[in-house]
Amino acid sequence: MPQRKPPMPDLSQEQFRALVEAGLVPLRRYLEICAARGWKPAV
Predict the structure, then answer these.
(1) Which DSSP letter does residue 25 get?
(2) Is 16 within 8 Å of 42 (Cβ atoms)?
(3) Which of 37, 36, 13 is nearest to 25 (CA)?
(4) pTM here?
């Protein structure tokens, strides 16, 4: 079953981090977005 990924919302890294902590974004997805955007993940 292929995993469907929603398009990347235009959020800041801090906003993504808050979503991860709230359980709304999987950590793996956050790391992928960080890598795609050249961010250093703050895990």
Answers:
(1) S
(2) no
(3) 13
(4) 0.65
Give the integer Cα–Cα distance in Å for 20 and 6. 15
**Encoded tokens for 42:** 């703050």
- pLDDT tens figures, 1-38: 556 665 556 788 899 899 999 999 999 999 998 999 99
Interhelix angle for 27-37 vs 13-21, to 10°? Answer: 170
Q: Which long-range CB contacts under 8 A does 29-32 form with residues at least 24 apart?
A: 29/5
| Residue 15 CB neighbours (<10 A) | 12
Boundaries of every domain in the chain:
12-43
